[in-house]
């Protein structure tokens, strides 16, 4: 183990070095627990959580979009007008849902109260988007087949 030296290359006693290290640790701890530093850390975590949530929302909506298109196209020829229109069915509602969720995110961050219509619109568009997906999963698209359910 090497002996610490001061600026004039004189050995520093262990007690002085320990006291200096303790003072430095106290300074670091004071900065780490400062409200602005804590707020910055919380903001970084919030940003990560927001990005992960938005990625999950977009992937979920992409899943429902393909299922709704399959259900709405119902045997239409690929690239025909009904087939293309079926691709627009789910995004029409999903874009409104994304706009409501983003507005709710911003208003909640700044603690702005929204009316009951925002909540109703959010749940209506969410239901309209996600309730079409189970139809495909349980076979409701197999029209006329008694064994589909």
Task: Please sum up the structure shown.
With 149 residues, the chain is an all-alpha fold. It is built from five helices and no strands. The chain has one domain (14-148).
Please characterize this protein's 3D structure:
The chain has 149 residues and is mainly α. The protein has one domain. Helices cover 72% and strands 0% of the residues. It contains 5 helices and no strands. It has helices at residues 14-32, 35-73, 81-109, 116-130, 133-138. The radius of gyration is 29 Å and the shape is elongated. The termini are far apart.
Order of helices and strands: HHHHH
Total helical elements: 5
Q: What kind of sheet is the major sheet?
A: none
| Portion in helices | over 70%
Mean pLDDT rating: 82
Number of strands: 0
Multimeric state of these chains?
A: single chain
Distance between the termini: 76 Å
Structural class: mainly alpha
Q: Count up the domains.
A: 1
Question: What does the radius of gyration come to?
Answer: 29 Å
List unreliable stretches of 5+ residues: 145-149
User: What global shape is seen?
Assistant: elongated
Strand content: under 5%
């Amino acid at each position: 183990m090497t002996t610490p030296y001061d600026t004039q290359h004189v050995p520093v006693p262990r007690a002085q070095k320990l006291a200096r290290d303790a003072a430095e640790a106290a300074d670091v701890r004071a900065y780490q627990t400062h409200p602005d530093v804590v707020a910055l850390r919380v903001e970084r975590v919030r940003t990560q959580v927001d990005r992960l949530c938005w990625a999950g929302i977009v992937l979920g909506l992409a899943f429902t979009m393909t299922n709704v298109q399959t259900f709405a196209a119902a045997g239409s020829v690929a690239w025909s007008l009904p087939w293309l229109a079926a691709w627009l069915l789910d995004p029409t509602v999903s874009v409104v849902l994304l706009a409501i969720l983003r507005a709710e995110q911003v208003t909640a961050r700044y603690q702005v109260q929204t009316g009951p219509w925002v909540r109703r619109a959010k749940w209506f568009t969410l239901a309209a988007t996600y309730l079409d997906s189970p139809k495909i999963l349980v076979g409701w698209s197999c029209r006329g087949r008694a064994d589909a359910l």
